[in-house]
């Protein structure tokens, strides 16, 4: 018989639950990859019966699950969903929650906080009334805090209740197939690993372009902005994986130690105007729940340097933004060109929507000529049907890892703390220098100032 666990989602009627968590649980049901017999407790303030909630959830699962929809599989999962209505911001409501857990014979708790971080403390306080909660695990959705100070205070509260190794800070980019592949592409291939340094590489570009705007999340986003929403977490995680030294072993501690060293080596730019551009798409201020005079950035591009032997002097360019006309996430390694006639070799790790690797190198034009042209090899991993069936989505993979107690692909507090410190300092420097948030048209590739930023160093954004 499978061991039981109880997976409780706070924020069970929110976007994240419908779009990501329930579809992930459905995929796990379909693939049989969950070793536990899991009870799913959905907590929300709205008035649903379990039956009504299951009906509602069906449409979302059907629309967003990676695997095709099968009514019998959904029913199997739905039978294990119970909806529990409560105001989770009221500490006194948790005594009844405890009674409810008794009624349904809950145990082996895993709590998912799919709510804004300001609610974390009250939930933790309330869970003190729930038997067995303290020995359980907790999954925290980003953003973890709103600044270094807030994040540190929050962390202290979380660690005072849950054991630190039972806290899973989710960064769903760490569950993406091609993010997991970066280490293999680099370390398993001497053609790359031997030239992975500032001596051979001209620059490294990490881009996360989004087609969507803020949609229904204006209230949250307007207090966050692109730097805190994407860069502090997802993109700094990728940066630390791309730039780290090879971990001594696959053990989680070894990888985290190397990632930490990268974050600790980040240099604060001396000239912020030559290092950072913030932008806002036209029409953003008219989005629901966004302030009419908002200066929040929906686009950010930064030039970063690392103070260590491997990367000294070589720029990392990182950019992200909304309403950029396409969805594209990639890491481009632009090698130094060997001669004025030859172009740079480019290794482009394509994270999404296409997953694969693009490699550009120099060859001779066919015929009686010595002219150099570029060969462009494009390997699309996600184009195969097999890939689609075998590759779990980020949330599916990370929820599964948490159930099984595998911690490697979650953010650690020290990493989160360091990246907050750096992002806070960047934001502050930008403001103190009186730099504007540049406006850009929806559907373009970002403010022209971000193009000029790279042009100032003789570079340009690689667009594949
Ligand atoms: C989330 C951000 O963490 O990541 C969103 O809060 C963003 O603003 C999203 O849209 C992007 O995720 P993905 O997986 O679609 O690239």
From TrEMBL:
NADP found in the keyword field: yes
EC numbers, comma separated: 1.1.1.49
GO BP of this protein: glucose metabolic process; pentose-phosphate shunt, oxidative branch
Residue span(s) of domain Glucose-6-phosphate dehydrogenase C-terminal: 184-461
Keyword Zinc: no
Domain of life, source organism: Bacteria
UniProt catalytic activity: D-glucose 6-phosphate + NADP(+) = 6-phospho-D-glucono-1,5-lactone + NADPH + H(+)
Pathway: Carbohydrate degradation; pentose phosphate pathway; D-ribulose 5-phosphate from D-glucose 6-phosphate (oxidative stage): step 1/3
Positions annotated to bind NADP(+): 45, 87-88, 142
Gene3D superfamilies, per the entry: Dihydrodipicolinate Reductase, domain 2, NAD(P)-binding Rossmann-like Domain
Glucose-6-phosphate dehydrogenase NAD-binding domain segment(s): 9-181
Family as reported in the entry's similarity comment: Belongs to the glucose-6-phosphate dehydrogenase family.
Summary of the function given for this chain in its UniProt record: Catalyzes the oxidation of glucose 6-phosphate to 6-phosphogluconolactone.
Protein name per the record: Glucose-6-phosphate 1-dehydrogenase
